[in-house]
Amino acid sequence: MSLKRQLFLASLLMLLIPWAGLQFVLELDQALRAQSASQLQVQARRMAEVAASELAGQSVLASGEDAIYIRRAERPIKLDGHGDDWPGYEDDEQPWQTTTDADNVLSWQASVHGRYLYLLLRVQRPDPRYFNPANPDQPYEFLRLRWRSDSLVTERIIRTSAPGPVVGRFPFSRSRQDHRVSGVWRSRSDGYQVELRLPRLHPGDYLALELVWPDPLRPDFAYSAGTRQHPLPVVTGRSPLLEARLHTLLAPGQRVFLSEPAGWLIARSNQPLPDNHRDFDNLSPLEVLEQITLNALRALVRFYQPEPAPFRAEQTHQQVPGHSGLVRHPDDERYLMAAEAVGDGRLLVLEQSLEQILALSGNTLGSVIARSVLLIIALMLVLLGYASWLSWRIARLQRAVNASVDPDGRILASIPRSRARDELGELNRQFGHMVERLQGYTDYLESFSRRLSHELKTPVAVIRSSLDNLEHATSDDERASYRERARSATDRLSQILQGMSEAARLEQSFDQAEPETFDLAQVMVEATAAYQSLDPDHQIRYQGPDDGCLMTGSPELMVQLLDKLVDNARDFTPTGGHILVTVEPTGQRLQLGVFNEGPPLPESLARDIFNPFVSVREGSGEGHLGQGLLIVRLIAEHHGGHVRAENHRQDGISGVRFEVDLPGTTGHTG
């Protein structure tokens, strides 16, 4: 899997942050709903007590009891018989009241404004029989109104000889008119409609409506439809004083309904939430994204909420669910509902808008989560961009490495160095350094066959010529001379092969050497004295302390290291020249140095002279393959040190100094 995909999958884990935030919002919403439901129930109980005191002395309208429900009109109703200025005339906002018969012959609406009560009656009888002035005794269709106010019962008859204006008539003297009751009679395709105005009635008064029409086959027989006549149906409706009192107890986002046991609303009020919505054109792009995220969060909260019960509160009736809790209105708005009994059967329903609860649970924390989501998306884009940048850098390094080596393993070019200071930049530089070292190693391997051929050519030629001459020798002295020459050439071949394998044998001996604590100064003093006795042609001396330079390792390997350094020094020191061995303690480190008088070291080899197969004895004929200083480096690194070479001037004498830096040890020799 690529680094970009790994970082992408890792960045997806950051989505756990908004998920955890959503879980917290859901838990917060549930806690707030539970707390709001408890507070709403307490508030509903308090409002029920207020309503009970306001309705004290008013009779309760029992379930199934006939009633005439009166609504309040915002302006006077024009009496034209059409009814189009009645609110809710063409929809179900203010449903019609109707008779309980199967045909629903008579239906009506009632409203009050000022000193008047307005009635809109609709009759579904296609062929009504009107009053005939030429034959007053002929049966005809009429409406009977009967109401009681202040213990006084009033009855009026509404009849007409043709559609048009009508007035109320006294029941026992129908020629006598009561202009307090007036209206208009209009025909309809399925019957007729009558719009009336009469003196205002108040909740607690009584009103009965009745339609009477004759049987066309039996003139002495008549039918009737309408409300109950004995006792008269009670007049009910919303109480402005009670609504005003309840309105003062409402908080923003709350609505209250108070109904009779029969379902008629007698009070209804609401306190809308303040409009805090800002104009979309005034929002910044970040605020637009935040609002979109917030709306999505609200939708998720709604999705995880319990399924609300349907609730329908009309202008006249309300349908109360069987339990308090979440309810949904026909407009799909959700509310938290609390119901409380008022007196003997009345019911007060208090609702709290969930928008306010969502504002508490969602707006503040939701705004944080919304911004967190935007931040996480931005971080994911940054991580993906960063991953793409890393992938591009790694791919570029990969291409550079592939371009530097051909399929046969030959180094074609160096790797361009990176200036970056991070790990990838360091890796690029390490690869470049490795390729350079491989280039040098490859160059030497390519010249190794020539170097080996050059070193082996002379002893092999000597052996071949000695063998050839040996066959033609005529004296014992001549044959002995040729055999000695062949033996000497064979020894030289052995030395060359031994030098080639010495470094490999040395690395194997590291595993077998037992480390011990010894005094490096004492070892160097003894070894230097031995070198001087074996080589009278050079001045080999030691400079430094005679003891007190402890280190841990193998003294035999350190003697071998010094052998190679002194042997190398003798090769370049002229006869009678100086070779100086020094040991210098510096803190916790020991500095072992070998200085030889002689030609300077080429600067191109100062760093690579300790690599395998590197030598400056070109054409010397001594059989050197550059393994001595490699052995020095291996022994130094085995003891935790490092070695370096530099041109140096010692006591006015120019030459080359080899320095080995080694770790010291505090303690006693064992």
Q: Count the helices. How many? A: 10
Portion of residues in helices?
A: 25-40%
Radius of gyration: 58 Å
User: What is the averaged pLDDT score?
Assistant: 81
CATH class of the largest domain: Alpha Beta
Characteristic terms for this protein:
single chain; alpha+beta; Beta-Lactamase; Immunoglobulin-like; 4 domains; 38% helix
Write the layout of secondary structure elements.
Elements: H1 3-12, H2 16-54, E1 67-72, E2 97-98, E3 106-113, E4 116-123, E5 142-149, E6 152-158, E7 164-169, E8 177-188, E9 191-199, E10 206-214, E11 222-226, E12 234-237, H3 240-247, E13 254-259, E14 265-271, H4 285-304, E15 309-310, E16 312-313, E17 318-319, E18 325-328, E19 334-342, E20 346-353, H5 354-404, H6 423-472, H7 476-510, E21 516-519, H8 520-534, E22 539-543, E23 550-553, H9 555-572, E24 578-586, E25 589-597, H10 628-638, E26 642-650, E27 653-663
Parallel strand pairs: 1-3, 1-12, 15-18, 22-24
Antiparallel strand pairs: 2-3, 3-4, 4-9, 5-6, 5-10, 7-8, 8-9, 10-11, 13-14, 13-20, 16-17, 18-19, 19-20, 21-23, 24-25, 25-27, 26-27
Helix pairs in contact: 1-5, 2-4, 2-5, 4-5, 5-6, 6-7, 7-10, 8-9, 9-10
Textual characterization of the structure:
This protein is an alpha+beta fold and 670 residues long. The protein folds into four domains: 3-55 and 239-370, PAS domain (Beta-Lactamase); 67-237, Immunoglobulin-like; 408-508; 513-663, Histidine kinase-like ATPase, C-terminal domain (Heat Shock Protein 90, 2-Layer Sandwich), CATH 3.30.565.10. Helix content is 38%, strand content 26%. Strands 1, 2, 3, 4, 7, 8, 9 and 12 form an eight-stranded mixed beta sheet that branches. Helix 6 (423-472) packs antiparallel against helix 7 and helix 7 (476-510) packs parallel to helix 10 (628-638).
